[in-house]
Amino acid sequence: MRIVTILLAAALALPLTAHAEGTLTVSGEARVAAVPDMATISLGATGRGATATEAMNATSVAVDAVLARLAGLGIEMRDIQTTQLRVNEQSRWDNERNEDVFIGYFATNTVTVRVRDLDGIGPLLSAVLDDGANQLQDLSFGLQEPRAVEDEARRRAVADARTRAELYAGAAGVTLGPVVSLRDTAEPLVPSIVGAEPVVVMGAAEAGRDVPVAAGELEVRAEVTMVFAIAD
């Protein structure tokens, strides 16, 4: 017990050194608003049939018409991708037989489309609904060239971190030294998502009106962690 007491007393007598006294670690963040210039939307058709082929054919007719319409509206093939193609058996519970009874097949065919002209997204949605699409989902907005906005947010985040470091150093009565390390800690830009669940769309399209869509703004966020040396 005496040895432990002596060692503890010696440790408490040592001055603060190395990592704790030599650096100052701060975080900085910034948010930059940007007007989106691109939209991404998944759309498609569902169908039912007595056989898997019949169910899929029911969706294929609508999706073929949708693809033709998209091409006619100037959407390039590089901006169209099939993202879901599925056929499932369907059944219902029969109380008399106390078991599931097969009633047919249900098919889904979904394509994801990038729309680079936001002024045309309302007419586009109305047109594909007229052509037989009965599902719209995952409408999101983004930037075709996000790098400039992201870099501006990063610059502001670094400036914010430096301002904080200078404030803390001044309050502590020490002189701020050079940057020892800098780490980007923000997550990648994720566009705002409108309606993540599938929606069967009616109303405006059935009335012959364009589907109303509001793009709003995107917020690009940057965050950095900086370590500064303490000069004295």
Automatic annotation (TrEMBL):
The keyword Nucleotide-binding does not apply. The keyword Signal applies. GO terms for biological process: DNA damage response. Keywords: Signal. Residues 1-20 form the signal peptide. Gene3D superfamilies: Protein of unknown function (DUF541), domain 1 (3.30.110.170), Protein of unknown function (DUF541), domain 2 (3.30.70.2970). InterPro entries: 26kDa_periplasmic_antigen, SIMPL/DUF541. This is 26 kDa periplasmic immunogenic protein. It comes from Maliponia aquimaris.
